[in-house]
Each structure stands twice: as C-alpha cells, then as structure tokens.
Specification:
heterodimer, A: 330 residues, Rieske Iron-sulfur Protein, 5-stranded antiparallel β-sheet, B: mainly alpha, 19 helices, globular, binds protoporphyrin IX containing FE, binds FE2/S2 (inorganic) cluster
C-alpha cells in the first residue's frame, strides 16, 4: 500500500445554485419544468390524432427521410415527444429545484464479524448432526442415487423433440437417375437449348406424382445449372462426362454452412456465396478458390432423356450442404 | 392535516402494522447513490429491457409463431398471393394492418440494439474502472451471463419473423450445431424436430424468446441489482471519498426523479428512432426459402464479430475413417467465442491472482492508473473490432472500393498482430498520462499565460493545483510487484513451477507505473 502524499482535503463545500438563493430563479425553473411537462402532453395529443386521424396508408414526403408513411411517423413522433419530455421535466426538476447536497454514508466490510461466522459454522454442524447425515451413509447414498436418476427423466422426455434420428437421410436428395430438372420458379422441364452459353438457372427435381415440395426438399435439392463453352472446362474425364454440352450442375447449398450460393460472375466463371464469400471455380468442378468453405460444391451428373429434356444421370455421389460428423468426405 | 395526507398515513400504517416495513423503507429511501454519467450505462440496459418487455408483449398479441403455410392476402400488395409461413404473414400483418404495429416492431428492434450496445458499454465501464474487483466478482459473472443471453435472445428475436434474412441466420446456426463432433447432427435434429428447416423451430424459439430467456433475464437482473444495492455502488476517487464511505444523493427524491426521468428519456429516444429510422424491413426480404438469399446478408451488429470470425477462417476440415470435423466452423463458431467468454468471466480472478490483491475495493480506478488492465481491455477491443470489420467485409468492399480479398487478408493478419500492438500502445499512453499527472502535481498546470522575464525570455506561468485536484491525482495506490515466495512458511525452498514464474512475470508487468510524487518531493517543491 503506497501512502497518499497529499492529505485528503475533504468534500468540497456546497455551491448554491441560482434557484437555491433567488426565489425568482426558482420560480423560473418551476415554469420551465411545467413547460416540459406540457410539451409531453402535446405529444400525446399528436399521438391520439395520428391514431384516429391519419389513414394507415397515408404517405408524405419529408426532406432527409424521403417518402414516409405519415401514420406511423406521427404516431411515433407523438409517442416519442410524450415520453421524452416527461423525462426531461423530471430531470430538470431534480437538477434545479431538488436539494443537491451531497450526503455521506458509511460503508462496512461485506465480511461478517468473526463471532457470527463461528456461530454460523457451529449451527450448520449442530443441525447437520441432528439429521445424522454424516452417520447414515445408506441414506446419503440412496438419496444421491435417486436424485441423480430423477434428473434423467426430463432428459428422456426431450427424446421426442424429433421423431426421426439423423441417418442416411442427411446424405440423400430427391435426385435419382432420370429425374427431370424443373425450372424454379416455373416448374417447367428444360432442354439444353433453353440455356444459352453464359446463362445460369436454378432448378429443382420433378417429384413423384402427388408429392408436394416442402422447404426440407428445397434445402437439399436446389441446383444451379450453368452453361459455358465445353472447351473452357478444366475437368478430369469422369467429371467432364457428368456435364452435358457445356452445361454443368452443382448443388446450390453451400458446402460451408448451407447458404444459397447465389452469385455467378460470368466473366470469371466464379460462383460466390454471399454469406461468407466462399468462391468456387465453375470450370474446375467448383473447386474452392477463396473463403472458408473446405469442399467444392457437389456436382450432379446430368444428361438428357428420350424426349430431349435435361435429367439427372445419377444421384449425387456425396451429401450436399454443410459438413457433419458422420459425413463421409473421402 | 390535509385529507390526502391522512389517507396516505392510513395506508402506511396499515402496511407497517402487517409487515414492519417502515424501518426498512426509511433506510431505503435515504440510501445514497453516487452520481456519474458512466453509471447511467447500466440504467440504459435496464430501461431498454423494460421497453423490450412492453413492446414485445404488444407484438405477441398478433404474432403467430407457426410455420403453417398460408397465402398472403393483407394490404402489402407486392406479396399478395405469395405462399409463406404464418409467422411471416403475421409479421406483415403487424407491420401494415395493425395501427402502431410497425412502430412497435421498430421500437422493439431498436430497443434490442440499444440493450446490447448499452450492455457492452456498461461492461467496458466496469472493466476499465476495476469495478469488478472484490467484493463484486459475482456481479461481473452475472453480467457476462446476461451479455451471452442477450446475444442469444436478440438472435432468436430476429429469427422469429421467418423472412429470408432471418432464415439464413438460422441455417448458419444449424450448420454450427451440425459441426459439433459426434452429437452434432442429433443435436440439430432434436432442435429442429428433424431435418432442416422442418416446421417446428419457430414455435420452439418463440417459447424461448418470450418466456424462457426473459424469465432468466428477470431472475439475473434482480440478483444483479440486489447485489448493487446490498454492496452499495462504487464511486470515483476524489476529495472526501474513501473506501469506507459512499458519497452521493439520497434515493428520495433526487435519485428517484433523475432515474425515473431518465427511463422516460430512453423510452422517448427509442420511440423516436422507431418513428424515423427504418429497421429490419422484412417485407423487402421476402419469405424464407433455403434456395434463395439476399445480397449483402448481414446479421445484427452484436452477431457481426462472430460472422467476421467465421468469414476469416481458413478452409480446414479433417476427413478420416468416414468422419468429418469442420475446423472452419468449430474454431470461429464455438471454440474462440468459448475461450473469449470464459476468459472474460474469469478475469477478476486472474487479475487478483496476479496482483495478490485480495482486499475489498469500492473506489474506482482511473484507467490510466492501471495501465496493464487498460491495455488488456484495449487488446480485447481491438480483436473484436477486427472481427467486426471482417464481418462487414462485403459492405466495406463496396463502400471503399476495396476487394474482399484485401479486407480478408488484412483481418486474418490483423487479428493476430493488431491486438498486441494495441496493448503496447495503450500501456505507453497510460504511462505518459501518469507522467503528465505527476508533472502537474509537482509543477502546477499550464495557465496559457506568458510572461517576459527581465532578460527578455518568455516563460509560461504555471498555476499551482487546488488541493482537491492535487489530492485526486495522488490518492491512488500503486501496488508493488509480488515477490514470488521462494520458501514456504517453514523456510523450506519451494519448487519454482512454471505457474509461479508466469505469475511473477505478469505481476511485474502489472505493477509498471510512473511513481507518483512522494511527500519529500512535494516538500522540496514547497521550499522553492
Ligand atoms: C430482452 C431481450 C429481447 C431482445 C434482445 C429481443 C429482440 C428481438 C428482435 C431483434 C426481434 C425482431 C424484431 C423485428 O425486427 O422484426 C424480436 C421479435 C419479437 N420479440 Fe423480442 N426481444 C426481447 C424480448 C422480448 C420479450 C420479453 C417479448 C415478449 C414478451 C418479445 C416478443 C417478441 C415477438 C412476439 C417478436 C416477433 C414479432 C416481430 O418480429 O414483429 N421479445 N425480438
Ligand atoms: S455458407 Fe457459403 S460461405 Fe459460408
């Protein structure tokens, strides 16, 4: 503990405010407070007027704000004024008219007195002894057991939070060999000719008749079709055979954390995920060239059916979307 | 006696005869509260919580927490006939068909942002002034808990409307869950009631958002305030203020009027923001579908640092024996935040272990008088700032014409390099300020007045400090470094473990100070 080289001069003495000494100043302060409270009352009037008098779809033009909904704006301003000026009035009142003498209170250490602490320990020991917890080990152990087991029941009850457990489902989509590609939106089958070089389209699988498409389906099935000139591909033979006349199909669900990979840059042939900017090179089977994604977007083999419509040549050969523990990524 | 006074007296009498409350109330109403602008930060947190309760309750009257598919037919024409969840449709209904509904939504959202911002500012005040020291460590830990819950609560809140932006956030949260080794996919299935997105998570997070977490908030806030009450507020050092007293204004009437008034000011200000500043226009984003995304998707600011960490993570996954571990998600999404929050919660104990200081403290530190702590705080802030910048890298890239690549590499390197630099610089600044204080006490403050000496030289007149000011600049204590005990009580040499060495080193760093003027030095000055 280092010493204080200068003695504590003690609390500075109280300085009178204007209103403390001068009754006229005090009167003025009182009026100011009243004006603040009255302003608040006007705010409530504006609020009520906007609620009943301004139609909900009324637009007005204001500088800075632009075109705004008048109903919501004046309702809000009325509320703001009514609340804000109550506060201003109260604070102004406290500052100008209420006593501003600082008060000193003593503080004592949090710690109890030694004898209280000793008495406390003694009480615990005595009362504990009367219950015989220390001696009766059988009771202690069985109580521990039953409490521990009882704690399991709420956990067990949570089991039905999900009817299904994750299994193969995580790795499956609705794409099968021969599944037609449908435009989204539009739900029309597409022929290769519908897609010009440089174009990109989002597609979904044709589902078996009677099956309604849910968000769960879309979360795994969404597919991007991109068409470039075939000679621009830089793929091995197998991957090249998965394309069709320069059309290549990737899962649209980011391999990082599952956002929709929505941005395609035609000039560089890069796909970009807006969530964390993982960037995939279309010409090299969606290899990751930037960002936190660790795997390429899964590629779906495509071809055409007898009527010339684009179809999946086979299912995805890996799980789409973000990684998970059981995912076989090799 | 006037009739009103008589009635009040009767009520007071009735209550006291049944509870004996008069004694307690008398003490309570004259309880002393120190006054300082920085003590209002905690109040803002409390008031915005109340605003959240009020505006949130209003929203529950119309919000339909259901993922049932409906066809929209409200007054927002652009989405007419679009299929969407009932949650999204009801949020549109609140925005366009309930009078004051949009205002309340915007007030609720702004209050959430202010709530979290004020909480962070409050935490920084407590940190930099050392208010977390004994006996207030428990309240620090409660505070860390509140901050964590606040982030979760806010995230769940903006996920409720089930718009395209919020659904994207939920998708990312789901991916973090899935990435947890061994149990991840099970955890996700239990939360979502099956595969993502399912039809259950909106009702589930709704219960958490309006009941479970606010309930925990209420309990924790109550405990937090009871401790403040019971331990009495800290105060800044100054003449007349000691470790043994508390100087301020009594609860009744001054403090009550100021605090009560301030509640209305905060509420009024939030309402003003809700009136003029649009926030979260969910009708622009459209309903959630996993196959779409809005460009420039950004979470609320208090999630931005997490997002920034995730964005800067290198693309590392381990694939072995048919299993996958996503380090690129686990490290930024769980491990680093876990370490940060744990260190933050433990900081009071770490500091007291290093300094060996186990005494109670009720006088606050000026940040400069504890250079090491202040530098640690600056280091942590810099870290968070870099991650926040990276969280907005797409927006920054557009605004400042940079490439995302540049910002990413700046952040990847900066996140390691800048915090230590901030530490060193801040420590130097603190020491320089201490030196300036010392100079001022010894030689007075510069008055700005020049006088010409007889031989023509100009000097500036230094005015002596007032005794109050001089006391304020010299009353703090400067702890010496711990001398690590080399022998135990019986004089047996102790093995010097790595822990002891580390502690001795940190303790030396923590005690680096510019010595304040001594009594002798001050005497000497007086003689001149
Ligand atoms: C204490 C912390 C709280 C935080 C940080 C918070 C945050 C949020 C946020 C950011 C939203 C999104 C609003 C939007 O822009 O649409 C929201 C929505 C909502 N909150 Fe809260 N909230 C809190 C407490 C509460 C409470 C106590 C209730 C109810 C008693 C509540 C009820 C709701 C409801 C019904 C919605 C959805 C309706 C809508 O979005 O329009 N909130 N919350
Ligand atoms: S989800 Fe696509 S980059 Fe993260």
């Amino acid at each position: 503990m280092s010493l204080q080289p200068i003695q504590d001069p003690g609390l500075p003495s109280h300085v009178n405010r204007k209103a403390d000494a001068d009754p006229k100043a005090a009167k003025r302060a009182e009026q100011q407070v009243a004006i603040l409270f009255l302003t608040s009352a006007l705010g409530t009037v504006l609020f009520i007027f906007s609620y009943v008098g301004v139609p909900q779809d009324q637009l007005i033009f204001l500088p800075i704000l632009g075109t705004t909904n008048a109903h919501q704006l004046f309702l809000g301003l009325g509320l703001a004024i009514s609340l804000f000026f109550i506060g201003m009035g109260a604070v102004h009142w406290a500052k100008t008219l209420m006593p501003d003498h600082e008060v000193v209170d003593v503080r004592k250490e949090q710690r109890s007195k030694d004898e209280d602490r000793a008495a406390f320990v003694a009480t615990i020991k005595e009362q504990g002894a009367t219950a015989g917890l220390g001696r009766r080990t059988l009771i202690k152990r069985t109580l521990g057991l039953s409490l521990g087991l009882a704690g399991l029941s709420p956990l067990l009850l949570l089991r039905d939070c999900s009817a299904e457990l994750p299994g193969e489902e995580l790795a499956q989509t609705n794409w099968r060999a021969g599944t037609r590609l449908l435009t989204d939106p539009g739900d029309r089958p597409i022929k290769p000719g519908d897609l010009e070089v440089g174009a990109v389209a989002q597609v979904l699988p044709l589902l078996p008749a009677g099956r309604k498409r849910t968000l769960n389906d879309i979360a795994k099935d969404a597919l991007l079709l991109i068409r470039i000139r075939p000679e621009e591909f830089n793929l091995d033979a197998e991957r090249l055979s998965w394309t069709y006349q320069g059309i290549i199909a990737f899962s649209k669900i980011c391999s990082h954390m599952g956002c929709a990979v929505a941005l395609y840059e035609q000039s560089t042939k890069h796909l970009l995920c807006p969530c964390h900017q993982s960037t995939f090179d279309v010409t090299r089977a969606a290899k990751v060239i930037f960002g936190p994604a660790a795997r390429p977007l899964p590629q779906l083999p495509i071809s055409v059916d007898s009527e010339g419509y684009l179809v999946a040549a086979s299912p995805f050969n890996e799980a789409v979307g973000p990684s998970y523990w059981e995912r076989d990524s090799e | 006696m006037k009739a009103r006074e008589r009635a009040a007296g009767a009520v007071a009498n009735y209550v006291d005869e049944r509870t004996g409350a008069a004694k307690w109330m008398k003490k309570t109403l004259t309880k002393v509260f120190p006054d300082h602008w920085s003590f209002m930060l905690g109040e803002i947190v409390l008031y915005s919580f109340i605003i959240l309760l009020l505006s949130g309750t209003f929203l529950t009257f119309w919000f339909d927490p259901s993922m049932r598919e409906v066809e929209y037919e409200g007054s927002y024409e652009a989405l007419e006939g679009v299929h969407m969840s009932a949650a999204y449709a009801s949020t549109l209904h609140i925005s366009f068909d309930v009078r004051g509904g949009l205002l309340m939504r915007q007030i609720h959202h702004w209050a959430a942002l202010i709530f979290l911002a004020a909480m962070v500012a409050h935490l920084l005040r407590v940190f930099f002034t050392g208010a977390f020291r004994k006996p207030r460590e428990m309240n620090w830990i409660i505070g860390v808990g509140l901050l964590t819950l606040g982030i979760v609560e806010g995230f769940l809140g903006y996920s409720l409307p089930d718009d395209l932006l919020s659904g994207t956030g939920i998708r990312i949260a789901e991916a973090i869950m899935q990435a947890i080794p061994v149990v991840g996919s099970y955890l996700s299935y239990f939360v979502f009631g099956g595969a993502f997105p399912g039809e259950l998570f909106i009702p589930r997070i709704y219960t958490a958002h309006v009941l479970l977490i606010p309930g925990i908030f209420l309990a924790l806030i109550t405990a937090h305030l009871m401790l403040v009450w019971y331990q009495k507020h800290t105060q800044y050092p100054g003449p007349g203020r000691t470790e043994k007293n508390v100087v301020g204004y009594p609860l009744l009437p001054v403090y009550m009027a100021k605090a009560g008034g301030f509640f209305f000011i905060v509420f009024g200000f939030t309402a003003f923001l809700g009136a003029v500043a649009q926030i979260n226009p969910i009708w622009v984003y459209g309903p959630y579908t996993p196959a779409q995304i809005g460009a420039g998707s950004q979470p609320d600011w208090y999630m931005g640092w997490l997002d920034g960490l995730v964005r800067m993570s290198p693309p590392i996954e381990t694939h072995a024996l048919g299993y996958t571990i996503s380090w690129n998600i686990l490290i930024p999404g769980l491990i680093i935040p876990g370490i940060l929050f744990t260190l933050m919660a433990l900081y009071p104990f770490i500091e007291s272990w290093i300094t060996g200081d186990k005494r109670e403290h009720h006088l606050l530190d000026r940040p400069r008088n504890n250079p090491n702590r202040t530098a640690i705080g600056a280091m942590a802030l810099t870290f968070v700032l870099v991650t926040l910048i990276n969280g907005g890298n797409d927006l920054l890239a557009v605004h400042f014409d940079l490439s995302i690549n540049q910002i990413m590499w700046f952040s990847r390197i900066g996140v390691f390099v800048l915090p230590p630099i901030a530490f060193v610089v801040t420590k130097r600044i603190c020491l320089a300020l201490q030196r300036a204080d010392r100079e001022m006490v010894l030689h007075g403050k510069e008055s700005g007045r020049l006088v010409m000496l007889p031989h023509g030289e100009f000097i500036e007149v230094h005015e002596p400090l007032s005794p109050q000011k001089a006391y304020q600049l010299t009353s703090h204590e400067q702890l010496p470094a711990l001398s690590a005990p080399e022998t135990d009580e019986r004089g047996v040499a102790l093995p010097k473990g790595i822990r002891q060495k580390l502690r001795a080193r940190w303790s030396r760093a923590a005690s680096e100070q510019i010595a304040k003027p001594t009594v002798e030095e001050l005497k000497e000055i007086e003689h001149h």
